[in-house]
Amino acid sequence: MNAKPATNGSSAAVIEVQPDSVCGEVALNVVVAERDGTISFPGQQNIGLVELNPNSKLPPPTDHGTLESIWHSFDLTHRRVQAGGWTHQVTEREMRMSTEIAGVDMRINKGGFREAHWHLADEWAIVLKGTARVTVFSPDGTMFIDDVSEGDLWIFPSGSPHSIQGTGDSGVEFLLVFNQGSFSEESTFLLSDWLMHTPPDVLAKNFGLGPDSIAKLPKNTPLYIFASEPPTQTLAEDQAEIAKRFPMSQKKFTFKRKDVTPTQSNGHGHVLVVDQRNFPASQKICSAICTIKPGGMRELHWHPNASEWQFWIQGKGRMTVFNSSEDARTMDFNANDVGFVPKMAGHYVENLGDENLIFLEMFATPDFQEIALNQWLRAMPAQVTIAHTNLSAEEVDKIAIPLENFV
Predict the structure, then answer these.
(1) Using the 8-state DSSP alphabet, how is residue 250 labeled?
(2) 2-69+261-398 and 79-255: identical CATH topology
(3) In this structure, what are the phi and psi dihedrals at residue 91, rounded to the nearest 5 degrees?
(4) What is the DSSP-derived secondary structure letter of residue 223?
(5) 231-266 burial, b for 16+ CB within 10 Å, e for fewer?
(6) pLDDT-derived band at 167, boundaries 50, 70, 90
(7) Which CATH class is domain 79-255?
C-alpha cells in the first residue's frame, strides 16, 4: 500500500499541490472558475446525496469526458422482503458498463433458508455478518456441506444445486457475486417453482410416492427465502448422515479466511488475493480483499485481464477512473456502495476517513492480474521514463517501488 496524504476532510495530513502546475488548459479553466466564483449552486440540491459525493458535485479539475457511472449503492435498490429474510441486487441494469459481474446482498434469519436452487452463473460469496450452513451437490454425484462465519467465502459452480441456511442467533448476511452482469435473483431455478410446474401424476411417478404425499409439496408461490427451524444436527452429524447415501465431495467449496494470512501487507494496509491458486474450486471468479488504513491509498494501477467490480464494506474514500481518450471521473464511496472499473482503465482508491477502509475487488476471471504505474515507470530504462514525464533522473529514482507487487 502506498502512503499518500488524504484529502477532502480526512484527519490525515494534506500535501498542497498547486493545480496550475499540473493541470492542462481545460482543467486549468475549471480551477480559475472555482477561484473567481464562476462556479456556484444557487438552485435546488439533494443535500444528503451531495454531502456523500462532494467529488461528484464539484469534480477535481483533472476529471474530463463522459465516462459512464462508476458508482451505485445497494441502498438505492429495491429490497425484496420475505418471512425468512430479504435481498437486493446491483446488476447491469443499474450499472450499464458492468456486463461481466452482478452482485446481491442477502440476509437470512436464524433457521431461514435461501431455497435450494441453481442458476446459469457461478456464485461467489463472502459472509458479512453471522453464520450459515451451506450445501452444494455436484454433477459427479458428490455432496458438500459446511458451516461458514463472518469473513468466510464460498463458490457454487454454475448448474450445481445448493442451499443456504442461517444458523447464528442473528442469522446471516452475505454478499453474492455472479459472473453474469444481467443476472437476476428473480430468475433462478427454484426447487419449489419446478415442482409447482410439473403435473402431479408425473411427480408421483418420478418420486414413487402416493397422491397424499404429492399433495404436501409446495403450491401457489415459490418459497425463495422462507422461515424454518435451525439445524437440529451438528455439522458432523449431517456429514455422517449424507455419507450413508452419497459420497462426500473431495473438492472444497468454502474458503476460511481465518486460516490464511494476507497476500501482501505493509504499514498502510493489506490485501488478500483469492483466486484459483489458493481457492481451486473458484475457476471463473477471483477477488482481492483490501484494507487501507487512514491516510493510505491503493496506488495507481490497472488490470489487464478483466473489469473490476467493487463492494465497499467499511469506511469512506474516493476513486478516479481513467479510461483513455481524456476520459476520467472521480466519485466518493461509502459502506454498501458498489464501484466499477472497466478493463484496462487506470485507477486508485484513497482512504478519506479516520477508520480502516475495507472493500472487495471482484473479477470475472480465474487469475488476479495487475500492473502498477510506479513499477512500470521504474522498470523502464531511466531515459525512457524521463522522456515521457519530464522528470529528472534524480526524481525518477525517488518514485516509490512498494515491496508488494500490486499495492
Answers:
(1) S
(2) yes
(3) -130, -170
(4) -
(5) eeeeeeebeeebeeeeeebeeebbbebeeeebbbbb
(6) very high
(7) mainly beta
Q: Is 64 helix (H, G, I), strand (E, B) or coil?
A: strand
State the DSSP string of 89-152.
EE-TTTSTT--S-EEEEEEE-TT-EEEEEE-SS-EEEEEEEEEEEEEEE-TTS-EEEEEEETT-
Q: What is the pLDDT of residue 40?
A: 79
Instruction: Point out the least confidently predicted range of 40-54, 150-164, 307-321.
Output: 40-54
Query: What's the CATH fold of domain 2-69+261-398?
Result: Jelly Rolls (2.60.120)
pLDDT digits (tens, 9 = 90+) for 186-219: 999 999 999 999 999 999 999 999 999 999 999 9
Walk across the sheet containing 269-274 and list its strands.
Answer: 71-73, 337-341, 308-314, 357-363, 286-292, 269-274, 264-266
Q: What are phi and psi of 394, to 5 degrees?
A: -65, -40
Span 281-302, pLDDT tens digits: 999 999 999 999 999 999 999 9
Out of 115, 185, 350, 361, which one is annotated catalytic? 361
Torsion-angle region of residue 269: left (phi > 0), alpha (psi -120 to 50) or beta?
Answer: left
C-alpha cell at 359: 472493500
Question: Is position 361 annotated as part of the catalytic site?
Answer: yes
Residue in this structure with the C-alpha cell 441453481, named with its chain if needed: 118
* Residue listed under C-alpha cell 415459490: 222
Domain boundaries, the chain: 2-69+261-398, 79-255
Mean pLDDT of the 77-93 span:
97
What does the pLDDT look like over 251-273, one tens digit per residue?
999 999 988 999 999 999 999 99
CB count within 10 Å of CB 392 equals 11
Which residue's C-alpha cell is 497476500? 263
- φ/ψ of 311, rounded to 5, equals -130, 125
Tens of pLDDT along 316-325? Answer: 999 999 999 9
How high does pLDDT run on average in the chain?
A: 92
> If DSSP codes are grouped into helix, strand and coil, which group holds residue 260?
coil
Residue 21 scores a pLDDT above 80: no
